[in-house]
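Check this.
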Amino acid sequence: QDLGVPAPTPQPQVQPTAMSNYTPQQTQEQQGFIEQYLPIAQQIEQQYGIPAELTLAQAAHETGWGSSYQAKQMNNFFGMNAIDVNPGAAYSYASPEQSFQGYGRLISQNPRYQQAYAQREDPYAILRGIKAAGYATDPYYVDKVSNIMQIIEQQ
């Protein structure tokens, strides 16, 4: 029966792409950040057992790969606040190493993160645990940091 409506035009079949097959590519800025701060993240892994790729990915995310004011002017790579001195104000460190040390102490010693820290053998599991414990409020934090870890793992 002809109702005066043209038949739909057949559309080409498109194969869906799985995000798990997506591998982000490193930029020169990212490569420079990784080369500069990976040794510090590796020291944190040796000292606290927190996977270096997780520590470095969180630092990259929190600072926009080292481009933030807090990273450049305050050596603050993890958005740590000086709650004990000036609530809401970012803490200033003398060096990037001190900032990474502060992060290592926070994750390994703060009771809030003990369940996450217990999963430190798996960087993705500890990341999910840190987020669940309230480290970040961004609902996409785990996805964003996981994508950065994939970039770092290309190293």
About this structure: Confidence is low (pLDDT under 50) at residues 5-21. The radius of gyration is 21 Å.
